[in-house]
Amino acid sequence: MAELRQSVSMGTRAVSSPVKRDDTVSSLFSSDIAGGSVDDGHRPIARGRDRNRDRDHDRDKEAHRSFLLRLPNFIRSFLSPDDRRAYFLLTSHRVHLAFLALLLLIGLVSLPYLWTSLNAPYLCIKEGITLHCPKTREPSSLWENPHSSTTSWKPCAERSEKPISDIPPENETNGYIFIHAEGGLNQQRIAICNAVAVAKIMNATLILPVLKQDQIWKDQTKLEDIFDVDHFIEYLKDDVRIVRDIPDWFTDKVELFTSIRRTVKNIPKYAPAHFYIDNVLPRIKEKKIMALKPFVDRLGYDNVPPEINRLRCRVNYHALKFLPEIEEMADLLAVRMRNRTGSPNPYMALHLRFEKGMVGLSFCDFVGTREEKAMMAAYRQKEWPRRYKNGSHLWQLALQKRKEGRCPLEPGEVAVILRAMGYPKETQIYVASGQVYGGQNRMAPLRNMFPNLVTKEELASTDELSGFRKHVTSLAALDFLVCLKSDVFVMTHGGNFAKLIIGARRYLGHRLKSIKPDKGLMSKSFGDPYMGWASFVEDVVITHQTRTGLPEETFPNYDLWENPLTPCMCRA
């Protein structure tokens, strides 16, 4: 019995030891499990937790071991196991913090770029002959440019609300300049804008320009017959001194029109500002009054100060206003165009340049009978004998010009392009044109596809237009304003009329579409006998997505009248 009590006592002490107790508990649970005393539903969960815990433990040990192996031997020899674990954890935190700091630094560096990208103005960039415009999520519209293109830029060529005049007293002016504004209405308009700019460059006084009779237009019109002269002089009074007539002290006025001694004739085309200062100003100071002629395109664009280009825009868009009766008649015609269907409707303005003079001057070949071609050849030989010569070279010249997109579009070609763009048969179209070469036969394809073609003569009565028939330029002014007010403007060939309208519509905010067909690409498509309608439509739509008067960067030798963006518009 004593031996038995001693063995039991020793067994009890053995179980009370922590290590032995754990072993006993483990064996107890093992026996319970083996005996089926633990619920069978909990067995997989317990085993899964044990396996996950073992894997995490092994992973930490492996990371710890690989970390210690990367430490130098002399550092590892001084660290106890606990120190090594602490050093590992501390270094891991430092790596994480360094990574977060790097991400923060990248974010801070990228923030200005992201801000600039988000706030960049809508601007189309030209690469070679391709124009790339920002993409928008707006659905495409037949009648309007994307709204995002209208919110980036605003006009800023108007005069200041509180202008400060820097014009010297009249007795301190450098002299007087006088010009003949030649050509048609729009060429004359450009000449007037340039005359104001040249007067500003030389600090001279401008005598009100005279509209010279053109041998094509055969029109004898004075400036005050078309434009509001009082507004013109008043609006520019803080920029340039403008007088209505030649000063009384200059008695021989005929000399100013005829004498070579009073004329500056050696001004090159697109002359820079310093040319006038170096070559023209000394003669004006000497003679006091000088005429500048010829004066067509005698001032450049990118070789003059920005403030001079801004002044030209101020003249064009703000100072040169048509007479009130012309403005009122144009408003009436536009209202009638918008209500031709009985309810408000948009309308398109088409500048169709296919008059006999334009067709002849282009020296391009067009579809027609042998008789028509013979008559056109005789007309060209009579009007332009130096260019015509014997006519043998004209066929190759015509082919080359058509490939380069330098030929006017025929009415039938215009109809096909507009239909490919998606304009329906019901589209209301205002036609601004002279007498179309070929008459009704030439117009038939266009009228068949778009029967709602009208001119000002069809919109207004004979009595309403009678007061404007005194001057051809008055009728041209009506066409100009109705086209300017249209929802969509389509040009078919270059010229001052089209580029002035496109520039003005851009200056008004880029909302109004101004379509400029790619005549070079269209000539290739028209000449491809294997191109189907679906392929042609795709080419037309893709090509003309960016040719609708969108904000476009200027480039060397750009045309200020067609694209006034950089000098005359500011970030909105």
From TrEMBL:
It is a single-pass membrane protein. InterPro entries: FucosylTrfase_pln, GDP-Fuc_O-FucTrfase, GT106_glycosyltransferase. GO terms for biological process: fucose metabolic process. It holds the Pfam family O-FucT. The chain crosses the membrane at residues 95-115. The keyword DNA-binding does not apply. Belongs to the glycosyltransferase GT106 family. This is O-fucosyltransferase family protein. It comes from Dendrobium thyrsiflorum (Pinecone-like raceme dendrobium).
